[in-house]
Prior knowledge:
The protein is 32% helix and 23% strand.
Amino acid sequence: xxxxxxxxxxxxxxxxxxxxxxxxxxxxxxxxxxxxxxxxxxxxxxxxxxxxxxxxxxxxxxxxxxxxxxxxxxxxxxxxxxxxxxxxxxxxxxxxxxxxxxxxxxxxxxxxxxxxxxxxxxxxxxxxxxxxxxxxxxxxxxxxxxxxxxxxxxxxxxxxxxxxxxxxxxxxxxxxxxxxxxxxxxxxxxxxxxxxxxxxxxxxxxxxxxxxxxxxxxxxxxxxxxxxxxxxxxxxxxxxxxxxxxxxxxxxxxxxxxxxxxxxxxxxxxxxxxxxxxxxxxxxxxxxxxxxxxxxxxxxxxxxxxxxxxxxxxxxxxxxxxxxxxxxxxxxxxxxxxxxxxxxxxxxxxxxxxxxxxxxxxxxxxxxxxxxxxxxxxxxxxxxxxxxxxxxxx
Length: 394
């Protein structure tokens, strides 16, 4: 049986949420009988492993730095990592860990944005979840909205800008923002869990919120708010060609928007499925509207080239009876197992489907040709290459 490496933690403001997701996946895979290698990435980017890091108890009630020991530190053995990942301890005669398939449970940057997926692909290592392009596009709220706009998928009006734009043409950006119907949302473009996000009604608050958002990202989105809001989610799983949607999920919240506290802290959090009185499955919408949202979620999943699992969020205007596509999350916290369970898919089955989808994708990729024979290098050997001054021969 394949050894699964579960990667969690990471250099992201969503670090703690990733630990919860990772431990849930480890527990589920162990129940299915899979050998597990827990790979914890700390907030500085160092990699740690060891059996004791495969339990949530190791991460509760104390600072992470206090539980990590030298023997838990591993490095990537690149020469041996081909079609697998080999981790080694630095000590002489240190332990060697071999991973046959990667299961990333990393949220946010360096884990959900295509970066670690790129590493897996360079090692020719099978991995669960969305690939590099779909992860990178979905992680970026600007690229997501531009793709929606190009494909005539309804989304709320928005503008975006960089720190350089803000510094050089702040007045122009503020004029553009005035053309949007307030209240407005200010969001870091590549951050999740509502971190760094604010809802504002005045220009003064807008400027302050932008300054905060720029501390988290170098691209900021300003978008219109849907005031008569119902927050609706639909998860999707499986291969790109034939994905399966979940039931719709409606979330209620106390704050002025769906905040980090509502998602993870209040009553145990709605994203974890603990705050059950704030979760309605299916959403309180007409059957036709629920089906339309499911169909749109599948369309977006396929448009982005997602594979494995994703969650598509929607904003529903209860007054205008209109649906707006919002964000695509290529690694939903806790895999949204509570929504899949309500949709008739138990957690063990969900994990099995994700592993099988990853295996199938890897098999399809191995059919592709990655090399091309030519005489370019031979011919270059007889040519003179010109530099800044003079020329040199190869």
